[in-house]
Amino acid sequence: MNRVKNAVIYSKYSKNAWMGGLKMKKKHGVSVLVCSLFVIFIFGCSSIEVSQDYQLDWDFGNLKTYAWKYKDQEKTGDMRIDSQLLDDRIRKAIEEKLLEKGFTKISGDLPDFQIVYKYSISRKIYSNPVSTGLGFGYGHYGSAGTIGIRTGTQINEYDEGLLIIDFLKPDRDIVLWRGNSTRVVETHSTPEKRIQDIDQTIGKMLAQFPPGK
């Protein structure tokens, strides 16, 4: 009789232990799922989004020469942006892409257009609702049921960089063409990766210029 009672107690203990372990796995699984979804989102957002706006009645085929409107970039008060390294890399990438398109940088004479750019970093919030169900069953002599995983909203934050490049008519400061781009900003990166990101971003932006090509 004692053996039967012990067997029953052991069976209940085993079942409770199994259920406890399943709950822990369930919570761990949800955490992994949420983290995985956010990683997928971030990598997806790492792709560069670009757009353009321009004067519809302007003949961009007459533009041959350019110059920077300002020698020094205006300070923003954001240490991540007010960097000589960043400014040099952005200007170098723009100049290289324009050279590939046949435009010439000049100084002294009045150019066909002038260039200014603005860069900003803003904090963005990404929310992802989580809703998952898990079914289970065991043995012919056991029981079967369903475990529901708690639903809720996972909130994550990330930095997004916005780069705007304007091509201006020199004598009247009229915006002839504007390029916009956004992409996720990595807080910690190598100089090589930062240069690569800038080149890719500006390359995709200036692929739109001249418009209509």
CATH architecture: 2-Layer Sandwich
Number of strands: 8
Number of helices: 3
Rounded radius of gyration (Å): 29 Å
Q: What strand order characterises the main sheet?
A: 1-8-7-4-2-3
Keywords:
Double Stranded RNA Binding Domain, alpha/beta, globular, 8 strands, disordered N terminus, 213 residues, two-stranded antiparallel sheet
Q: Can you offer a commentary on this structure?
A:
- The structure is a single chain.
- The protein has a single domain (2-206), classed as Double Stranded RNA Binding Domain.
- The protein contains 3 helices and 8 strands.
- It has helices spanning 2-45, 84-100, 191-206; strands at residues 49-54, 65-68, 104-105, 113-130, 133-137, 144-148, 152-169, 174-184.
- The strands form 2 sheets. The chain has a 6-stranded mixed sheet. Strands 5-6 form a two-stranded antiparallel ribbon.
- β7 and β8 form a beta hairpin.
- The longest helix is centred in the first third of the chain and has 44 residues, at 2-45.
- The protein starts with a helix and ends in a 7-residue tail after the last helix.
- The relative contact order is 0.19.
- Mean pLDDT is 79; it is low at 2-15, 22-45 and 134-141.
Layout of helices and strands, plus pairs?
Elements: H1 2-45, E1 49-54, E2 65-68, H2 84-100, E3 104-105, E4 113-130, E5 133-137, E6 144-148, E7 152-169, E8 174-184, H3 191-206
Parallel strand pairs: 2-3, 2-4
Antiparallel strand pairs: 1-8, 4-7, 5-6, 7-8
Helix pairs in contact: 2-3
